Amino acid sequence: MAQTDYDVVVVGAGFAGLYMLHKLRSNGFSVRVYEAGSDIGGTWFWNRYPGARCDVESLEYSYQFSEELQQEWEWSEKYATQGEILTYVNHVADRFDLRKDIQLNTQIKSTTYDEDENAWTVRTTEGAVIRSSYCVMATGCLSSMNIPKIPGLDNYKKPTYHTGNWPHEEPDFTGKRVGIIGTGSSGVQSIPLIAEQADHLYVFQRTPSYAIPAYNGPYDPDYVRDRKENYAHYRAEAKKSRSGFLLSVNDANAMDCDGQEREMTYEARWTRGGLTFLGAFNDLLIDKTANDTAAEFVRRKIRKVVEDPELAEKLSPDTVIGCKRMCVDTNYYQTYNRSNVTLRNVRDTPIEELTEDGIRQGGEEIKLDALVFATGFDAMTGALSKIDIRGRGGRSLKEKWAEGAKTYLGLAIFGFPNMFIVTGPGSPSVLANMMPAIEHHVEWIADCLIYMRNSESREIEAVDKAEENWVRHTNEIAGNSLFPTCNSWYLGANIPGKPRVFMPYLGFQRYLEVCEQVVEKGYEGFSLKP
Ligand code: NAP
User: Fold this and answer.
1) pLDDT 10s digits, 78-125
2) Which residue, 441, 375, 305, is CA-closest to 146?
3) Which end of the chain is more exposed for a tag (fewer CB within 10 A), N or C?
4) How many angstroms separate the alpha carbon of residue 184 from the centre of ligand 1?
5) Segment 14-67, tens digit of pLDDT
6) pTM score, two decimals?
7) How far is the CA of 374 from the centre of ligand 1 (A)?
8) In sequence order, what E strands does 147-249 have?
9) Would you say domain 6-144+378-529 falls under CATH 3.50.50.60?
10) Which of 158, 154, 209 is nearest to 182 (CA)?
11) Is 148 in the pocket of ligand 1 (CB under 6 A)?
12) Is the Cβ atom of 375 under 6 angstroms away from ligand 1?
């Protein structure tokens, strides 16, 4: 290895960065983690809006690398709150003594590859310069906020909030007229709670979401006992699914069943609640006719809950269900029966501008005391594009990705040797349970670096052709599904000007197999320099 400050610099101290640090340090590498936030936790540090909680079951949305850790930690609810997850993050950091190798409040400005030395020069915004043999970008898939460029944004004088950068001091909306733009997962979670507090809540909806009830509640001790006693089995089963969750997909096709059978299947999934609704049938994300049956089932549920039929209609999505990330809710549709909540349809009547103290829409000014942006993220590439990453020949990653993100396995990039991304575009990441997806990448990267050390290699890089093939393969799979049919953030379609390319890889189990084969074949698709 070249003369460097550290073997590995890790950017980001969320779940990915923390485990990367632990894994590499336990294997004798010197590691330094840089984190922009004032504390660790990544997503769960920043997204502390009212109602923020995970919509993957706690017993599955947790690390499995340490048997002791998974046995000792007690989750209180099926879907943990942001606060509980952050407590868990801190417990992990303390338990494995991680903090001493993490530098907080430090934003990475640039990283530049030195081809002669096979090392990265990493610069912080405060001017510090660090050299490392490898860089691991653990910057998160949903960490770069999207605030839409609405005319008048600079003129608006009242407090604004983004769900992805919520203040630590909880804002008090009591007696206030609050506006919220966005009805994705963050909006769906926060709207019911803000409505309970505010004098009046105006929801600005462009596209209605499909939300499945969470039916959250305390864990049944017997259920937890069984899961814990058989963790290895359950975790292994989850890895065999296409999404990394248990109870994923029914093998039957919706269109092979009669109407009554379909209804019963949907009802059973609905009653269980949560994201696994989409696994009711195998063909829901492939066959539009099948998808329509599930979509209509949910629309019927919305009509049952929302008392005003016109309002129910406005809240009913007409898109492919599951094409955009589904939401998991608690009292979302019920909230629209409140007299202090007004739905404003932005699709039919776009927002014209922000005024000094409100929103002008359809010629009418709605006065507000506070405005919440639940407008999502520049997903999967946003956080990386903010860093000036320069690889071979000084070429910037931003330039390389101008036409869309290209990676090999979502882990490595041609032209950017000795750099890895955890859950990068081209990997299952956001279409899988993030925790096993993160752990898999961390372990794959650590094994790779151990291999590099043992084989006395000093440089590893994705091969151009392998990357091309992988991007094509990822797109082919997506092209056989209904995913490209809507303007989702999976496609980058939520960010004006972002190339429309489907970013995540569909199929968790298949992906795990490919990654394993790559290693078995001596890091096929990578070039290694001795
Ligand atoms: P999102 O799903 O991208 O939703 C953003 C919302 O803002 C959409 O309704 C979007 O409308 C709207 N919007 C954006 N720009 C707009 C504009 N100019 N005018 C009007 N409306 C606009 O973002 P998110 O809700 O923060 O969720 C992002 C992802 O984070 C989720 O899909 C999920 O993967 C993850 N997440 C998970 C949880 C959980 O585990 N419980 C919670 C929150 C988030 P359009 O649909 O028309 O673009």
Assistant:
1) 999 999 999 999 999 999 999 999 999 999 999 999 999 999 999 999
2) 375
3) C
4) 4
5) 999 999 999 999 999 999 999 999 999 999 999 999 999 999 999 999 999 999
6) 0.97
7) 6
8) 160-162, 177-181, 200-205, 211-213
9) yes
10) 209
11) yes
12) yes
